[in-house]
Structures are given as structure tokens and as C-alpha cells.
Amino acid sequence: MAAKNKQPSVDSGTVAKNFINQYGKGKFKRFLRLLKDGTSGEQIAEEYGVSRERVRQWKNAFGNVVQSYDVDPEIQKIAGIK
Predict the structure, then answer these.
(1) Domain count along the chain
(2) What's the domain range around 51?
(3) pTM assigned to the model
């Protein structure tokens, strides 16, 4: 079987430049702020007039999602952990 030709993926910098060319630097900064604030993809998609899938693609291109879980201090006391 012949190997399928895969298109090279576009790098993050190119995606960012394309975003800025289309929406402007202010909207780019706002997009990043919305992501950082945890705004839903649905809300962002509505604001930018794109699909949630496009928002997900941009989100993945521009950074990484990092989640953490903070245990309530009262629960830490009950469990005897610090």
C-alpha cells in the first residue's frame, strides 16, 4: 500500500499571525484573555462568529490546558493532610 501524503501541520506562530490578520491584535489579546478566564468555547465562538470546533483548534494552537484540583482546607484537616 502506498503511503498517504499528509499535509504538514501549520505551526502555532502562523496560526496566530493569520488570526491577527483576520481579527486584529486587540481581538487576539481578548481571545487569549477569554481562554485564560475560562470562558466557554460556545461563548467565544458566538463572539467571533465561528464554530466551537474553530475555537478548539485555536485553543490547541495557542497553548495548553492545565487543570488543577485544590482540596478544601477543611477537608485537608479532616483527612489529616497538608
Answers:
(1) 1
(2) 12-62
(3) 0.72
